[in-house]
Design brief:
The complex is a heterodimer of chains A (254) and B (304). Chain A is α+β, with helices and mostly antiparallel strands and 254 residues long. Chain A is 30% helix and 41% strand. Chain A has seven helices and 13 strands. The longest helix of chain A is centred in the C-terminal third of the chain and has 24 residues, at 229-252. The chains are: A alpha+beta (254), B mainly alpha (304). Chain B: This is Probable membrane transporter protein.
Chain lengths: 254, 304
Amino acid sequence: MIRRLACLLPMLALIGAAKPTLVPDVSQRDIDIIYSFTGAQLLLFGAILYPGGQKPGPNDPPSDIIIVVKGPTQSIQVREKQKVAGIWVNAARMRYRSAPSFYAVASSRPLDQLVDDRTRAIYEMGLDRLQLSPVSSAPASEQKRFSQGLVKLRESSGLYYQAPHAVEITDGVLYRARINIPARVPVGKFTAETFLVRDGRVLAAATREIYVRKSGFERFVARTAQKDGFFYGLSAVFLSVMLGWGAGALWRRF
Amino acid sequence: MDLYLPVANLSVNALVIVLLGGGVGLISGMFGVGGGFLTTPLLIVYGIPPTVAAASAASQVTGASVSGVFAHFRRNGVDVKMGLTLAGGGFFGSLVGAQIFHLLQKTGQIDTVIGLLYVILLGSIGGMMATESIRAIRNTRSGQATRARKRRHHPLIASLPFRTRYYASGLYISPLAPALTGFFIAILTTLLGIGGGFMMIPIMLYIFGMQTRVVVGTSLFNTLFISATATMAHSLTTHAVDIVLAALLLLGSVTGAQIGVRFAQSIKPEYLRLALAAMVLAVAFRMALGLGWRPDEIYSVALS
């Protein structure tokens, strides 16, 4: 990978734009879910190209990188349990039109040291700045309670997280970060947005796409279960009858 | 050994699931029950979504009952006509059950309903089984022979119209009674992923007054039918049957069941029933705690 990046370096001299640009890449463009899938680790890396090849000097403000990885958005319903007549039941709910199924933000320094709240809100940097678009006319305090509940729930299963020091920058030019994607993510298009931040301002941004999909047998099973329930059900029944009968027949010989 | 479940969308330790199936199979072989009442809660505790757990547990019940049905057929212990009447009602029951499941899922109450039904059903039946088996043990200890119950069906059953003869069961009753029983038990099968044998057998014995010889075989025959129908109903409506999960459970449970059957022959039936009652009550107690205690996660997410 280092060699690959080294090839990019001569390009620095060719770029003459006034603003720095980003050349991002990911270790895997496609994540295939197969039987042994227990999650994936993505390596996001790239180079910062400065105009005229001029790296900022030691007295200039340092460059920082923020990487936001988002999974496909889902329309979801969050339910809240309350104690009713002695038992805990789902009593209240809130609908969200487009909540990301996965969200990770990695940065070279804690987010609040890099950018102000407005910038964070614009680029959805940080778990408290997610745009979840609730479908509700409930008071703001209630909406906040629900979105905090959702974020906490997904944090505990590794679906949402922030990693404040996860981006390493080498020589102010090369950066890299590892993002863990758990096995529970849905399939679909993931986006990795990389932001170059200096002096509280976003100077450059670049996006890469990653496709997570089931492949082979897992793909076949999931598709059949959704699309051809009758055949799927018959196969499940057949499998159980054959296994039950086979074990019985086998054991009777002893 | 980690294995990805394509419908549940998560990865599990295959060995744990096979052992879980094996343990349930052992119990189902020992006590002649399907074991679904244990599979579903255990899977939920392991972290499988309740819908997938209930849907996939039904196919484990099918596998566990198959070899039992064959064994009972060989010694003429199945009243096929009675079994088909039950299964006929059960067919409609599982369709209705799947609709109820879908509705409860949409309103978000499925977990609570599954929990409540478990507590009520298992609690009451476990309690009855425990008192009955303790009485039986006491009677054998004091050398008193247990009075045989007069085999007579419930007056309510006798009042139903269209009577027909069930030769193997020694009954002349309306087919409506078994059909309705099959209907309601199939609803529970679809909702809870249980076979319902532990409810079916007492009803057959004490309400229908069936010949004891055919009770277990016929109940298993019905369980086989209903659990297969429930699997079909789930495949068509909730799409939540995970065939990989089911296969893992089956691998364990069919083996466990065979060991259980052999093991059971060396234990007195009263003690076996008492042990089953204790287990049923333990599951009911655990589910009751789950309902009453503050859960770890107040919030839950469902796709809409």
